[in-house]
Amino acid sequence: MSDNTHGGPADAGPIDVLVVGLGFGSAFAPIYQAHPAVGRVGLVDSNAERLAAVGADLSIADLFTDLDAALAEPGWDAVHLLTPVALHAEQVQQILASGRHCASAVPMATSLDDLDRLIAAQQRSGKNYMMMETARYSREFFHARRLLRDGTLGRLSYFRGEHLQNLDGFPPYWLGFPPMHYVTHALSPALALSRSRVESVRCLGSSRLTPDHIGVAGDGFGTEAGLFRLRSVDPDIGDDLVANITLSFFQLGRSYMEGFSVYGTEGALEWPQLEGGPMKEFRAGAVPAGGRGRAIEDGDIRPAGEPDLLPIELRRFADGGHGGSHPHLVHEFVSSIVQGRSPRVDARVAATWTAPGICAHTSALQGGQEIAVPDYDADLATVADDADPAGGGGR
């Protein structure tokens, strides 16, 4: 493609993408290789052995052990960052300042000051920033969106989200990680479906960290449970909404669970109790004659997702992990560059979804005090939408 100073639609040819961090990035590199609008794919990882192995497996010749060296090379239109959380804020700023578009794994950052810095960096650069939130592009989210749009849910009433994951034995930088700093997987579906932001949060910590679990973040909790007050830009969807979110990373003897449940006046959709199981769908009927309470039908559902939103070349990846979200994330990021528009989860939306967790952890440390969440003036009207497919799934 052209040099890395372009700012408008990428009409000069395919875009070249660097994938940084192969612990998770190895799942994304082949999707970029398959995307019809992507040219070269390069890999960056500080682990030279892993870098060489993934490069050989995918027949990728452009390999770098250092992000600085990769960004010093000419070309490379976009970078997908999948490095440890503590590095996100500085590396995103570095990438944007180099004149490249940047996609980043969640969370956007772990402090409100860094969220402000990243928004400012994106504005200065004129390049795209996208937070690659898997929950927003999962088959489960797509199914919930269908139920909302066809009236099955009625008006939205309430949300619940959980992310329970034992981090014992994970790399040292995860030690004592504040659970709510990783809130986006459990909270973003509620915010996207309701087209809302969080006004305030009250959060309590449970199970004070034992000395062997305390990390660089200092004293904290193994589990944090928050009540998030939402404000929607579309009151026809629902009003006075609350999301009840629980996250746990330490000191909880429970198997992995990461998901959301959505409740409406006419129906509901619940995440399975066990990972990999079916979701449960509920539909409310009338109050039976002489009875009390509305009749409720329930059934198991395994959502199929929406592969038709993808180019044909990417549909084979739609059965993958994180609810089949990976090809949708790649396609949205690439499409936003090609079309010269902001991605759905741009810097302001990402901050809107990330800040509530930062404020929730602050609330937990203050014994549940209500904390106001900043308003980042994000465009929430279309955050749950996807452009209609055209040309065999391209956008």
UniProtKB/TrEMBL annotation:
Transmembrane segments: none
Entries under Gene3D superfamilies matching the protein: Dihydrodipicolinate Reductase, domain 2, NAD(P)-binding Rossmann-like Domain
UniProt KW keywords: Oxidoreductase
Gene Ontology molecular function, alphabetical: nucleotide binding; oxidoreductase activity
Top-rank lineage group of the source organism: Bacteria
Gfo/Idh/MocA-like oxidoreductase N-terminal domain location: 16-131
PANTHER family linked to this entry: BCDNA.GH03377
Name the UniProt record assigns to this protein: Predicted dehydrogenase
Protein's organism: Microlunatus soli
